[in-house]
Amino acid sequence: MLSSKADDFAHKVRSCDQRGLARVLSMVENGHPLAPSILHSLYNPERSGLTIGITGPPGAGKSTLTNRLIMHYRRHGSKVGVIAVDPSSPFSGGALLGDRVRMQDHASDPEVFIRSMANRGHLGGLSGTTRDALEVLAAASFDPVLVETMGVGQAEVEIASLADITLLLLVPGLGDEVQTMKAGIMEIGDIIVLNKADRAGMEQLEMSVNASLELIPDQDDRPQVIRCSAQTGEGVEKLTDAIVSCASSGTWGKAIAQKRTTLILNGIIREKGRELARKLILDRYGSVEEAIESILEGKTTPYRIGEMLSGFLKNKRENKNEC
Ligand SMILES: Nc1nc2c(ncn2[C@@H]2O[C@H](COP(=O)(O)OP(=O)(O)OP(=O)(O)O)[C@@H](O)[C@H]2O)c(=O)[nH]1
Ligand SMILES: [Mg+2]
Q1: Reported pTM
Q2: What mean pLDDT value characterizes the chain?
Q3: What three-state secondary structure class fits 44?
Q4: Could you tell me if 214 and 284 lie in one domain?
Q5: Range of the domain at 58
Q6: 158 and 307: one domain?
Q7: Buried residues in 217-231 as b, exposed as e (16+ CB within 10 A)
Q8: Whether the CB of 61 sits within 6 Å of ligand 1
Q9: Is the CB of 118 under 6 A from ligand 1?
Q10: Ligand closest to the CA atom of residue 57
């Protein structure tokens, strides 16, 4: 009964029924009991839809670039999903959203779906919600799905890194902030976007970024650096070409399916309580890596494993209460 209800919702998502889609995203956001079954039904680690995280310091031009990317992908006939994430705010919905993305430009376009997500403090937190919302929008064949996060703290960087490809925006004249970004530069960012190229100070910024990147020993691991101006549009085509080349490299298919699965399973293990969840997975699959292999072989999904862990933990709590 439950699973047929979940299948109904999954069907609505796949056929991109706007109301159904919005409802499922709310269920994911509110931790609705049906959400894991719906996500299980939708999950496909080999999906073709690309997800792109956009992060960088306040005012770096993330929303302006998001808007440019929406325009670019719409011109190419793609359906675009956008998730605007604000970890510092407990509110989600229209008001925040209107502020973040220039929604009025796309409000009447049914092929653009924009959703804002805020911190509501339920289990799994914003990171889990965003991760699952990305899967839902990708299953509804939005391609790409963009996720814009505000700020450059650990949480924001982590959220942007949930996407298949992460863009890290830097701008001239940040001073100390570039220093604090250095760790981020090393850790994330498949592509580093030097935005506001129409402004002075670009050479200096590029030199300092390149100097940081040289610390990455293997040249192949270094992110690409692209200059652009989200405001004038200059360099945006070069950026979208770089995204295409990232997503079509020889090892992409298998590597990305593995990355998606690992991120989701590790997130679920964290949410359920690391120690015990890990132990249960070891008992069942031998190792986390083998559980991931099972998922990649199509035998299960991270969400089904999550349900198994929840069931076990619930039984354990009930038994304890009876004792
Ligand atoms: N000169 C110049 N200004 C830009 C460029 N891109 C964005 N801006 C301006 O920078 C300001 C901040 O842009 P946003 O796109 O709101 O920046 P954001 O990173 O989304 O900001 P938060 O979401 O508040 O962190 C706006 O006034 C933009 O018009 C650019 O390439 N060149
Ligand atoms: Mg913004």
Answers
A1: 0.91
A2: 86
A3: coil
A4: no
A5: 51-249
A6: no
A7: eeeeebbbbbbbbbe
A8: yes
A9: no
A10: 1
